[in-house]
Amino acid sequence: MERKNVWKSYDQKQLKEINKLAESYKDFISKAKTERLCVDYAIAEAKESGAIDLANAIKSGTPLNPGDKFYIHHMNKLLVMGIVGKEPFEKGMNILGAHIDSPRMDIKQNPLYESDDFAFLDTHYYGGIKKYQWVTLPLAIYGVIAKKDGKVVNVAIGDEHDDPVFCVTDLLIHLAGNQMGKKANVVIEGEALDILIGSQPLVKEGSKGKDIKEAVKANVLEILKKKYKIEEEDFLSAELEVVPAGCARDLGFDRSMIMAYGHDDRVCAYASYKALLDIKSPNRTSICLLTDKEEIGSVGATGMESRFFEDVIVELMELQGEYSEIAVRRCMRNSCVLSSDVSAGFDPSYPGVFEKKNSAFLGRGICFNKFTGRGGKGGSNDANAEYIGKLRQILDKAKIGWQTAELGKVDEGGGGTIAYILANYGMNVIDSGVAVLCMHSPFEIASKADIYEAYRCYKVFLQEMQM
To answer: What's the whole-number mean pLDDT along residues 239-266?
Structure first.
C-alpha cells in the first residue's frame, strides 16, 4: 500500500515539464501575495487564453458556446473561472475549488502610533499562526487604501530590490530568561505583533529647533502623503496585509522543492486554474473556484459560505437558456468536486504527531484526504466510496502519482477546508492537494513533483470525471 516516490518514474521530458511548471509557479507565488493579487494574476492569464468576462456577457445577454472560457470575480477577492461543456448544465459540472487567502497579519483601522522614538503599525493576525515565527523577519505590506473621494490607492512595498522592509521586534536572548520560560503560544502575544516602520523624527525648515509632537510618527505620515497622497484617517478604509518579504526559492542542492510564503493554498489554486486553462472542449462544464476567507472559516461575502458561486451558476444557466430552479439544483447535485487544498506532509523531525501509514509524503504525488475535521471527524466532509473508486480508475489510467492521508494522528489536532460547504449541495467532494511541510509558517515547503502531479490530476479530472 506504500506509494512510490514519483521522482523515480520521470523521464527527461517530464523533468523539463516539471521545471517549467515550477518556474511559472514561483513567479505566481512570489508576486501574488494577497487575494486581490491572486485574482489579478489569474484573470490576466485567463484573458491571454481567450477567456471572456462573464459579467459583460450577462449584461449583454450573449450566450456562450461549448468550449468558451470565462471568468467573473466578486470584490476582487473571489474568482470563478470556467469552460462551457458540451453537455447540459443539469448533468453537472466538474469543479476545482481552492482558496487564495493565507495566514498573515492585517493592519488595524487605527494603527499608527509612536512609542519612545519609534513608529509602529498595530496589527491583528489572520488565520492560525505560531506567533513567535513572525518576529525578526523582513516583512512587506500589500493592499489597498480607499479614499473618501472614491480613489483606491494600491500599496506594495517590501519586495522590490530598493524597497525598505518592516519587522516585529523580539527580546534579546541576554534578557529573555522569563520569556523563555513561557509556553510557546504566549511567548509572543497577539497585541505584541506590531511592526516597526520608522525612527527618524520630522524636522521642518524654519522651526528653529522647536519640537514637533510625535515627530517620528509625523515623519512617517509625511512620507505616506508624498508617496501615496494619503492622510492618517485613510487607514480607516484600508485593507493592508503584512506578509513575509522575499520571493520563492528552490530548496535543496537538487532544487527538488520550493520554499515560499503562501503554499497553503495558493499552490493548489495555481495548479487548478492552470489545469482549467490548459484543457479544451470538455464534455461537462469545468469550473475553477478560487475563494477567500478559508483560513477563518470561509465566512463573509467572499468566502465559500457566500451565495456568489451559486448565483454565478444561476446567471450562467439563464444566459444559456437552461435555467429553472430544479435544473439548478440538479446541476449542483450532479457535480463532482476536488476541494483543492494542501495536506500536512510527513516530517521525520516530528514523527510523533503523525500516523505514518496514513500520512502524506513529499514526492509521492497529489494527496487525497477522504475526510478532514477534528477528533471524531467533527466538521468534516467524508467522501463517498464510489466516488473515490472512480477517481482511482481515472488517475491510474492516466498514470498519475497519488497518495492518501489524514491530517496527523486522530486526537492530535485536525483542520478543515471548503469541502463540506460544497458537499451541502449534494455534490461528490473530496479534498485533494499538495503535501506541505511547515504549514502556516511564514515560509512553507512543497515538492515540485507533487505540484506537477496535482496539475496533471486536475486536468484529467476536468476532462474525464463522470459519475
So the answer is: 98
Query: What contacts 391, CB < 8 A, 6 or more positions away?
Result: 368, 430, 461, 465
> Distance (Å, rounded) from C-alpha 239 to C-alpha 106?
8
Q: What pLDDT does residue 409 have?
A: 85
In the structure, what pLDDT confidence band is assigned to residue 411 with cuts at 50, 70 and 90?
Answer: confident
Question: How far apart are the C-alpha atoms of 41 and 102, rounded to whole Å?
Answer: 16
Angle at 355 between CA 351 and CA 361, to 5 degrees: 70
Buried b (16+ CB within 10 A) or exposed e, 418-446: bbbbbbebebbbbbbbbbbbbbbbbbbbb
Separation CA 228–CA 231 (nearest Å)? 9
- Average pLDDT of the chain? 95
Q: Are 228 and 153 in contact (CB under 8 A)?
A: yes
Distance from C-alpha of 407 to C-alpha of 430, rounded to nearest angstrom: 14
- Return the residue matching grid coordinates 451558476: 313
Phi, psi of 159 (to 5 degrees): -110, -15
For the cut 60, the answer to whether the pLDDT of residue 115 exceeds it is yes
H-type alpha helices, 263-377:
263-277, 308-319, 325-333
Give the model's confidence band at 208: pLDDT under 50 very low, under 70 low, under 90 confident, else very high: low
**pTM for the whole structure:** 0.95
- Segment 314-335 shows an average pLDDT of 97
Distance CA 405, CA 368 (A): 6
Q: Cell for 202?
A: 520630522
What was the pLDDT predicted at 11? 97
Between the CA of residue 243 and those of 22, 86, 203, 466, what are the distances in Å? 22, 42, 31, 40
